[in-house]
């Protein structure tokens, strides 16, 4: 008999972010394993939806039959604590947590506290929690007092893709991530200004629509620093793997990542990484395949870029280590099997 799962998600499932990409591949993988996955759209604006959107999401979830197995993306579930208190005895609720909501960059202290409290209450009512990295698992355990046996770590998979030759002249620095504060593209741009005397070109690929003020501020920053002819803001990229295949260095200064799928993709294509010691990034990027600096340290980021650009032997060693690290990464079939096993335990 085919097992039934309802997957409830906020926003647009086709959105080009790592989190939504994970959701799509998880759904496909579970269906391949024989699960009947019903999709339930909860509406836009999470984790700060309009009141009517939240009420409608709760109505849709409450319409599920007794005993239904429902997995809810944490971007929505973290603020559905009141609904979970009413329905957790009737439904088998599984939370999918990409990273705790209160860790998003740019939140004021009051909003962080509200999100921390609501997510704590919601997660305490879930039958099980799936997280996308050991770091997120540790955060969920420590922040929300969730027993480790109630948490499953299901690492994102990484598809095979062309390996970069890493022989660009000038070196091509690639960054992939939505233009939002957490991705800290402003730190990368400041770092590039500090090494403008070196040969390089840079491409920053990512949606401008998720935070239009941040996108406009980045455009102004690039223009003010006189780097508009060396840094391309490419917007959404149809094929990030092709872009990475053209890269010599992958550089993303994220202030936090629950996993950071694009770091794994860069490694799998033999591209050495420059990033920050933040969230799960040190779990993904081994020390021989990348340089990690403190968060918001544009000078340190610039030094790492300079080392990678000017020391060809060092760059070649890092690229070889990146390829080796990429070969050890799991595939999406591994991700789906891990999640399937956790669901079967409560199905």
Key attributes of the depicted protein:
Rossmann fold; 347 residues; 2 domains; six-stranded parallel sheet; alpha/beta
Q: What does it look like?
A:
α8 (212-224) links the parallel β8 (201-205) and β9. The longest helix has 16 residues, at 109-124. The protein has helices spanning 18-32, 51-62, 74-77, 81-87, 109-124, 134-144, 185-194, 212-224, 240-245, 261-268, 281-284, 298-310, 312-327, 332-344, and strands spanning 4-9, 36-41, 69-73, 92-97, 128-131, 151-153, 172-176, 201-205, 231-235, 249-251, 273-276, 290-293. The protein has 2 domains: 4-157 and 330-344, Glycogen Phosphorylase B (Rossmann fold), CATH 3.40.50.2000; 172-327, Rossmann fold, CATH 3.40.50.2000. The strands form 2 sheets. A 6-stranded parallel β-sheet has the order 2-1-3-4-5-6, sandwiched between helices. Strands 9-8-7-10-11-12 form a 6-stranded parallel β-sheet, with helices on both faces. By secondary structure, the chain is an alpha/beta fold. The protein is built from 14 helices and 12 strands. InterPro entries: Glyco_trans_4-like_N. This is GDP-mannose-dependent alpha-(1-6)-phosphatidylinositol monomannoside mannosyltransferase. Belongs to the glycosyltransferase group 1 family. Glycosyltransferase 4 subfamily. Residues 69-160 form the Glycosyltransferase subfamily 4-like N-terminal domain. One of its GO terms (molecular function) is glycosyltransferase activity.
């Amino acid at each position: 008999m085919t097992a039934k799962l309802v997957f409830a998600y906020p926003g647009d499932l086709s959105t080009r972010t790592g989190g939504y990409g994970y959701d799509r591949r998880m759904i496909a993988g579970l269906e391949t394993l024989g699960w009947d996955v019903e999709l339930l759209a909860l509406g836009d604006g999470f984790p700060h939806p309009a009141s009517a959107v939240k009420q409608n999401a709760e109505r849709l979830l409450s319409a599920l039959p007794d005993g239904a197995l429902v997995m809810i993306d944490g971007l929505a579930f973290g603020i559905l604590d009141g609904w979970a208190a009413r329905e957790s005895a009737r439904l088998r609720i599984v939370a999918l947590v990409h990273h705790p909501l209160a860790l998003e960059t740019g939140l004021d202290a009051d909003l962080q506290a509200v999100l921390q409290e609501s997510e704590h209450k919601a997660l305490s009512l879930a039958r099980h929690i799936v997280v996308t990295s050991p770091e997120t698992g540790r955060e969920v355990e420590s922040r929300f007092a969730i027993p480790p046996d109630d948490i499953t770590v299901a690492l994102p998979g990484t598809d095979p893709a062309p390996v970069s030759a890493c022989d660009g002249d000038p070196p091509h620095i690639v960054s992939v991530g939505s233009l939002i504060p957490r991705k800290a593209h402003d730190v990368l741009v400041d770092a590039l200004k500090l090494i403008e005397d070196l040969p390089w070109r840079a491409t920053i690929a990512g949606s401008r629509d998720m935070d239009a003020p941040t996108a406009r501020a980045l455009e102004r920053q690039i223009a003010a620093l006189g780097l508009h002819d060396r840094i391309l803001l490419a917007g959404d990229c149809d094929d990030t793997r092709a872009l990475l295949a053209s890269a010599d260095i992958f550089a993303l200064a994220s202030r936090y990542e629950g996993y950071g799928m694009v770091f794994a993709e860069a490694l799998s294509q033999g591209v050495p990484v420059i990033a920050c010691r933040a969230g799960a990034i040190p779990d993904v990027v081994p020390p021989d395949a990348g340089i990690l600096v403190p968060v918001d340290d544009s000078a340190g980021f610039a030094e790492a870029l300079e080392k990678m650009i000017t020391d060809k032997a060092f760059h070649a060693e890092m690229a070889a280590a990146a390829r080796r690290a990429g070969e050890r990464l799991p595939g999406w079939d591994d991700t789906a099997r891990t999640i399937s096993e956790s669901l079967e335990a409560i199905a």
